[in-house]
Each structure stands twice: as structure tokens, then as C-alpha cells.
Design a protein that fits this description.
Helix content is 35%, strand content 25%. It has helices at 46-54, 89-94, 101-110, 126-138, 156-173, 184-187, 207-210, 214-238, and strands at 6-17, 20-31, 35-39, 61-66, 72-75, 144-148, 176-180, 193-198, 200-205, 249-250. The chain has a 7-stranded mixed β-sheet, sandwiched between helices.
């Protein structure tokens, strides 16, 4: 690994909320140009880990190292709006600190939503909202893009399109991406490595091998088998992966 490519490194982080552990001895590294996806059941600590990376939450144990001068773009799970608040897409994007009309338009065009700039936020669809949130994150010109459940409220077709878009953004911008997802069978085809989290790291590595690991199967049960079948079909159809030399690394649970 080239040390200059390392954007963020989390080392043995633990977080407790009162007497309840949220994260236990969790480590991860995100390099420039790679997509790392966090998966796990509800309450596994995924969003807590994202908050630690963003500097919004300090761990009780462990360290977080960020590349000097790093710019981070963050896309939250959802945006809750007051239905009577008169807020257009343009005004919302300007809350990022960018007011240049051309840059706002370019950002929307990059995410495939070029005609939304003057639309009221309350009048756009779920899929359009996710693209607007992504456009806002990109306005920061991020080295690291953090996406917390980026396909919330999006239909299946839109989910595929958003994951394709995320892959294109990584390719075009060369940024690192840390993504949280519950949609296992879709996200597996759009990520380089998967971290399976349940307060601690259960297993991590190439997505196809993670889906076959006992720790993953134990966490997701019957659903894991269905996700693996869908993922394998997509993998064969797209021929995206060459896993001949990939190793899955495992931590005892």
C-alpha cells in the first residue's frame, strides 16, 4: 500500500453508549480509488462507525487517522423536510457553501439530475432526492466520499442506477468511498471490499467470498443464501470480478 493513498485509518476503535457497546475493537482502512462497504444487521454499529470517521463521535478507545488536508463529502441516510418550508434544490445545494450557479448545475449533471435545480425539494421523487444529496456531497470536491445507505427510498431500477453512478464517480474522480448498505445483493457488485460488522468486525475481504463465510451466513440466515444467489448471477452476467487470489480475513466472534 502506498502511504500517500491512505485516506483514513481506524485503529482498534471501541464506542460505548452507557453500558451498551456499539463498537468493539474495530479497524478499517480506506485508500484512494477504492470502495469499501459496511454491512451488518440493524444495530450493528455501522452508522456509529461512520460518525467516528466523520469526527462527529469520539471513541472511548482506539485512534482515527485522516490524511492531512483531506476533504470529506457526506451523504446522510435521509433528509427530513418541513413540508411548508419553501426550499428549492438550488437553495439546498447552496447550504453546502457553494453558490456558483454553474458549479451547482455541473454537480447535478454529474449525478444524472440536470433538470432539478429550480424544483422544490418537496416535489421531487425519492430517487431524485438521493441524487441531490449525492450532488451536495460532491460539491465539496471530496477525497473521501461517505455514503450512509445511499439507496434509501429508491426502487430497484433506481438502486442499480445509483450503484453504477457511484462506481463511475470513483473512476472519474479517483476518490475513496466508504459506503453503508443493507442491500447486500446489489451492493456486492459495486464494491471492492466488504466489512461485515456486528459491533466487531466478523469478516472482511472480497464480496463474493464474504458472502460464503460462516460469520456472514450466521448473521443473515436464509436471506444470505438468497443474496448470494442473486449476487452470483449478477457476477456471472457482468464478469466484473477476478477473485483467483483473493483472501478473506476473519476475526473470531
Amino acid at each position: 500500500m502506498n502511504i500517500n493513498d491512505k485516506l483514513v485509518e481506524v485503529q482498534a476503535v471501541s464506542v460505548n453508549f452507557g453500558v451498551h457497546p456499539a463498537l468493539q475493537n474495530v479497524s478499517l482502512t480506506v485508500q484512494r480509488g477504492e470502495i469499501i462497504t459496511l454491512i451488518g444487521p440493524n444495530g450493528a454499529g455501522k452508522t456509529t462507525l461512520v460518525r467516528v470517521v466523520l469526527g462527529l463521535l469520539s471513541p472511548q478507545q482506539g485512534q482515527v487517522y485522516l490524511s492531512p488536508g483531506i476533504r470529506i463529502g457526506y451523504m446522510p441516510q435521509r433528509l427530513v423536510l418541513d413540508p411548508v418550508l419553501p426550499l428549492t434544490v438550488a437553495r439546498f445545494l447552496k447550504l453546502s457553501g457553494v453558490s456558483n450557479h454553474q458549479r451547482l448545475q455541473q454537480s447535478l449533471t454529474e449525478v444524472g439530475a440536470p433538470n432539478l435545480l429550480s424544483r422544490p425539494l418537496q416535489k421531487i421523487s425519492g430517487g431524485e432526492m438521493q441524487r441531490v444529496l449525492l450532488a451536495r456531497a460532491l460539491l465539496r470536491e471530496p477525497d473521501l466520499l461517505v455514503l450512509d445507505e445511499p439507496i434509501q427510498g429508491v426502487d430497484v431500477t433506481g438502486q442499480y442506477e445509483l450503484y453504477e453512478l457511484i462506481t463511475q464517480i470513483r473512476k472519474q474522480r479517483g476518490c475513496g468511498i466508504l459506503m453503508v448498505s443493507h442491500d447486500l445483493h446489489l451492493v456486492m457488485a459495486a464494491t471492492d471490499s466488504v466489512i461485515c460488522l456486528n459491533q466487531q468486525v466478523c469478516c472482511f475481504g472480497h464480496p463474493e467470498l464474504v458472502t460464503r463465510h460462516p460469520a456472514y451466513l450466521k448473521l443473515f440466515g436464509d436471506r444470505a443464501g438468497r443474496d448470494l444467489a442473486i449476487y452470483t448471477h449478477h457476477h456471472l452476467a457482468e464478469s466484473r470480478f477476478d477473485n483467483a487470489s483473493t483472501v478473506v480475513k476473519v476475526k473470531d466472534t
